[in-house]
Amino acid sequence: MYGFQPAYLESFTKGTLKEKAETGRRILQSCTLCPRECAVNRLSGETGICKTAQTAIVASYHPHFGEEAPLVGTNGSGTIFFAYCNLLCNFCQNYDISYLGHGRNVSAEALAGIMLSLQDEGCHNINFVTPTHVVPQILSALEIAAGKGLSLPLIYNTGAYDNVETLKLLDGIIDIYMPDFKFWNPETARMTCRAPDYPEKACLALKEMHRQVGDLIIDKSGIARRGLLIRHLVMPNNLSGTPEIMSFIAKEISTESYVNIMPQYRPCGEADKIKELARYPSEKEIQEALESAVKAGLGRI
Predict the structure, then answer these.
(1) Is the pTM of the predicted complex or chain greater than 0.90?
(2) Distances (CA, A) of 157 to 85, 111, 195
(3) Cα 168–170–176 angle (5° rounding)?
(4) Helices (H) and strands (E) in the chain, counts
């Protein structure tokens, strides 16, 4: 896209990025960033479900070549993996990060330095993985990084258990939203992550994300610049409710939605303790998931 400029640069110039960072920090005093709404004072060292106080914990960062093609390009997506999580699926493939919190505490200055280092490596974007519980920390670091020349698109790579109020803080900041809409059935959400309100919150979150950035825009070189990219993991026994999710996306978001239906579920974490989760999805189940997207009227699969 000729003349593309990340959304946050205008916010930085106008001073609204600084205001958003300050608002986010105030929320940490009685944290309601995500639907868990633990209301702990993270600034004083208290922690809730996400086990994260006032400082973000980074597990790793590097150019990632395993993401979707429009994000990877030739030089990779600059991924920053944050430790811990607000959703905590019991089948998580990154159990050591999300549950055990492997990583190191980073200041706003250090996080800004990570973003700039990934830009220096030639990455096409900055990809925040599991960012829901550290939105204020990201905003504070972004203000520093923008002042030092950061100019890459930002990706919000989330499990979609996000409060709309928090997402509104990111309006004019995030260029690409990449939510993984996991489950349609509240009972599945209760069984896997103790969040029966997940489907309701995810629906509202996707609508807000699309309102902000619209359908995914890919430039002439094949690189995504702005928009919504939706992921969906196919689970055994249709526990994810794929047909219903595809129908929702087509009817309530857009038939032009870019949707990645992912077949790589495997029983990680504590999944082997639950019969319904303790196997891989079959080839038939994967094919049926793809067919449900086509049947719903989605064309960018």
Answers:
(1) yes
(2) 12, 17, 19
(3) 120
(4) 11, 9
Tell me the C-alpha distance between 196 and 202, whole Å: 11
CA angle 198, 258, 20 (to 5 degrees): 60
- pLDDT of amino acid 4: 83
Which tokens go with 12? Answer: 């930085």
Cβ contact 35:163 at 8 Å: yes
> Would you state the pLDDT for residue 1?
43
What does the DSSP 8-state code read for residue 280?
Answer: P
What values do phi and psi take at 263, rounded to 5? -100, 5
Q: Which value, in Å, is the radius of gyration of the alpha carbons in the chain?
A: 18
Residue 188, classed as helix, strand or coil, is: helix
SS3 80: strand
DSSP letter, residue 250:
I
Residue 201 near residue 215, CB atoms below 8 Å: no
* 7-296: in CATH 3.20.20.370: no
- Successive 10-residue mean pLDDT values, the chain, 301 residues: 83 97 98 98 98 98 97 97 97 94 97 98 98 98 98 98 98 98 97 97 98 97 97 96 98 98 94 92 97 97 93
Domain boundaries along the sequence of the chain: 7-296
